[in-house]
């Protein structure tokens, strides 16, 4: 591993306890002299109240807009390099993202374990979250460890919050950015951004921001028989969107803000390499960054997030009401030609002349209302109480459509003539009602005890069906109506903080995380290819529902500042006991279905650290963050699935000792930045970053697929450079991301075809070396 370190550390959490310590910490930081290289104060809202990051009793990384700009962070993959214990999993570069914190993450099919919020609006859907463009944000807060008390069931591993800037009632300001770059092995990229904010009257203000970006492709599509390039740089992406906010003040105590976020992204093709070349009679080897494709692929993702927020200063407390609506539609086309042989039984003599396209549409909408009351003042006790309601509905429609590529030697079946073959439809509705609260007691000046609790009622219903049209498959329809679900989770949190000295503290915390259970889908029950695997598990009639899983997170931490506050540190050791883990079962090939079951328990033990050092009291800043897992394995087997014998015999289980998904043993980040004054308002900077990430697994190994090559993800290292000139009004920067052009295999999976030639793997990697120029103007 461990060739070098990366990614400048973000702002650190140090937190103090006791009224005097809290007040002194905020005063000291605010008064610090930047010329000595001390750390500036950051105000966060991680506990749903505004407070200095130095006083927040959580393991948190907060990255401000200025720091994001200097790092060149535009997406969550780049963000994860600066956050200890954070991992991002995606099948391809632009596909939906699955987040993991401290090793707690979904396996691609199970529900999300990290809640993603835009201000007070949750945007996590099922097992993933929208791939939002990082622009026009005040900061991003990443909260590690269970956050179920304040953020609900999706936050069993932590929470990620995009915090947007408020309209400015005092001053008119704006910013414009233009950027262009080129990607090795690929095409040109470019992006523009514009934001404006200011008063419209004494009690009315606005903020408007928008962006447009083009990410050039770097994957060439070639003919699967001859290797000739059919389309160059095919996997490009076009994105545009914006945010509009209007704020009004009712007197001095009440403020209302109406805002809406819109984003529209469209991909021309998937970022896979290799793919379906195994169907060719002549197996022409593919170069790196090449793929074959029989059916045109792509993705269209649209999201709308309106919100109305009302705050009122009641004197003894602040009242906040947040009303949100989340509407999202994702449409994508996937080349499923590999399934012609495996799932649809098409003879080898004819399958090379037919393509199969899987068209999938996901629609989701949710209404969310939260009301909370947070105490104000500096008494012995601080408290917060609130209520939360969410009503959601979603649907997924998938259609398999065949297309005739050639007319020679084709048998006259409806499958080969082209048209719809099979459709899979599912729908769901859910209601979540919760009450939550926290109270902190400041004892003996230096000691603070905090306790929090959330009590929820979660209800849901779903329906799933599969319909087969093609006579070659024997037209059938299967409908599953799982029983309605109802759960009542309780998620507590406790912490104790002790201020050793003005700039040093230690803490202990324990919190419970929870993820609701659910029902499995039709699992291609109408498909004969899956039936033997299901029969072997004694599941001929379908796969039963899976239960909720829970965990407890225990941690000890120390945070503070040394050497006249030029060195800031935050470190923690933690243990997570995770029980009844929801995991996918990879059914034996040629079936491609993956039902979900509760497979065993796990214990995760690790240490994380985040340091920032400004030596010599000048312009040099060194950053280091890391996460090391002492252990992240299944602690015991849990068997699921039975045969039809009497008594039933368990046949499927997770393998004890298996490394959990998304748990690279060591992730290290290191950065160095030097900034200096040129004249008057002119300054310059140079920044270098590197990242080293150990290999990891994408799924848990089970008895059904103990050595599946799709399980593993390669370790890799990434280096980036950036240098810039700031004149006060303008900033010009030149950068190189992935300077060494690393191309690790992030995903490698075998096609489910009975191939006539070798190979048959599809792979994806990170974006190749990208060199660019950015110019921005502030006014």
Would you mind describing this structure in some detail?
By secondary structure, the chain is mainly beta. The protein has a single domain, classed as Maltoporin, Chain A (Beta Barrel). Helices cover 6% and strands 53% of the residues. The protein has 8 helices and 45 strands. It has a 22-stranded antiparallel barrel. Strand 13 (220-222) and strand 14 form a beta hairpin. It is globular, with a radius of gyration of 27 Å. The model is unreliable at 1-38, 277-282, 407-414, 639-651 and 752-759 (pLDDT under 50).
Mean pLDDT: 79
State the end-to-end CA separation: 45 Å
Counting structural domains, the number is 1
Q: What structural class should be given to the helix and strand makeup?
A: mainly beta
CATH architecture: Beta Barrel
The CATH topology name reads: Maltoporin, Chain A
Number of strand elements: 45
CATH superfamily: TonB-dependent receptor, beta-barrel domain
The helicity comes to: under 10%
Largest sheet: 22 strands, antiparallel, barrel
**How much strand?**
over 45%
Overall shape? globular
| CA gyration radius, whole angstroms | 27 Å
């Amino acid at each position: 591993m461990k060739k070098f370190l990366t990614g400048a550390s973000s702002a650190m959490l140090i937190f103090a306890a006791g009224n005097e310590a809290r007040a002194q910490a905020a005063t000291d930081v605010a008064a610090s002299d930047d010329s000595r290289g001390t750390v500036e104060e950051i105000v966060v809202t991680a506990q749903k109240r505004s407070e200095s990051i130095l006083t927040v009793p959580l393991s948190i990384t907060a990255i401000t807009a200025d720091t994001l700009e200097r790092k060149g962070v535009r997406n969550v993959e780049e963000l994860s390099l600066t956050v200890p214990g954070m991992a991002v999993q995606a099948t391809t570069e632009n596909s939906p993202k699955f987040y993991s914190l401290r090793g707690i993450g979904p396996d691609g099919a199970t529900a999300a374990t990290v809640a993603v919020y835009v201000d007070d609006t949750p945007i996590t859907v099922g097992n993933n979250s929208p791939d939002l463009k990082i622009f026009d944000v005040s900061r991003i807060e990443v909260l590690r460890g269970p956050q179920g008390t304040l953020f609900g069931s999706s936050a069993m591993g932590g929470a990620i919050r995009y915090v947007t800037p408020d309209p400015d009632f005092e001053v008119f300001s704006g910013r414009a950015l233009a950027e262009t770059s080129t990607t090795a092995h690929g095409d040109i990229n470019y992006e523009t951004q514009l934001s404006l904010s200011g008063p419209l009257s004494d009690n009315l203000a606005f903020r408007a921001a928008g962006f447009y970006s083009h990410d050039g492709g770097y994957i060439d599509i070639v003919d699967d028989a001859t290797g000739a390039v059919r389309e160059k740089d095919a996997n490009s992406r076009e994105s545009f969107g914006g945010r509009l906010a209007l704020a009004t003040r009712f007197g001095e105590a009440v403020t209302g803000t109406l805002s809406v976020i819109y984003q529209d992204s469209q991909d021309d093709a998937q970022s896979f390499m290799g793919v379906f070349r195994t169907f060719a009679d002549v197996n022409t080897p593919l170069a790196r960054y090449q793929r074959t494709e029989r059916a045109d692929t792509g993705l269209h993702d649209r999201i709308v997030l309106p919100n109305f927020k009302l705050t009122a200063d009641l004197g003894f407390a602040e009242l906040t009401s947040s009303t949100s609506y989340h509407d999202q539609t994702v449409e994508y086309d996937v080349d499923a030609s590999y399934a012609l042989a495996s799932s649809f039984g098409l003879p080898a003599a004819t399958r090379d002349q037919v393509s199969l396209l899987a068209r999938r549409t996901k629609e989701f909408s949710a209404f969310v209302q939260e009301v909370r009351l947070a105490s104000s003042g500096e008494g012995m006790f601080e408290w917060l109480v609130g209520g939360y309601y969410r009503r959601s509905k979603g649907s997924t429609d998938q259609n398999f459509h065949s297309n005739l590529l050639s007319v020679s030697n084709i048998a006259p079946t409806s499958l080969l003539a082209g048209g719809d073959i099979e459709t899979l439809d599912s729908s769901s509705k859910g209601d979540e009602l919760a009450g939550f609260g926290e109270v902190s007691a400041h004892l003996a000046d230096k000691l603070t005890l905090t306790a929090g609790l959330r009590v929820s009622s979660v209800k849901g219903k779903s329906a799933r069906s599969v319909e087969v049209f093609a006579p070659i498959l024997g037209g059938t329809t299967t409908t599953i109506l799982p029983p309605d679900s109802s759960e009542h989770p309780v998620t507590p949190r406790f912490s104790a903080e002790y201020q050793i000295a003005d700039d040093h503290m230690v803490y202990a915390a324990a919190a419970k995380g929870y993820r609701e259970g659910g029902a499995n889908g039709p699992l291609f029950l109408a498909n004969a290819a899956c039936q033997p695997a299901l029969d072997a598990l004694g599941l001929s009639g379908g796969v039963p529902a899976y239960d909720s899983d829970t965990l407890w997170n225990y941690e000890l931490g120390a945070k503070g500042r040394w050497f006249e506050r030029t060195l800031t540190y935050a470190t923690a050791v933690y243990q997570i006991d995770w029980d009844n883990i929801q995991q996918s079962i990879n059914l034996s090939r040629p079936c491609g279905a993956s039902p979900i079951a509760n497979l065993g328990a796990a214990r995760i033990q690790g240490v994380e650290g985040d340091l920032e050092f400004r030596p010599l009291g000048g312009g040099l800043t060194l950053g280091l963050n890391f996460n090391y897992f002492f252990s992240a394995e299944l602690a015991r087997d849990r068997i699921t699935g039975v045969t039809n014998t009497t008594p039933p015999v368990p046949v499927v289980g997770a393998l004890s000792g298996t490394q959990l998904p998304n748990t690279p043993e060591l992730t290290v980040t290191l950065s160095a930045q030097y900034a200096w004054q040129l004249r008057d308002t002119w300054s310059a900077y140079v920044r270098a970053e590197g990242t080293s990430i150990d290999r990891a697994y994408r799924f848990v190994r089970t008895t059904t697929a103990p050595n599946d090559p799709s399980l593993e993800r390669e370790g890799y290292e990434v280096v980036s450079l950036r240098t810039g000139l700031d004149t006060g009004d303008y900033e010009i920067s030149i950068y190189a991301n992935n300077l060494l052009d690393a191309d690790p295999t992030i995903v490698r999976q075998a096609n489910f075809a009975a191939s006539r030639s070798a190979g048959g793997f599809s792979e994806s990697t990170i974006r190749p070396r990208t060199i660019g120029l950015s110019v921005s103007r502030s006014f």
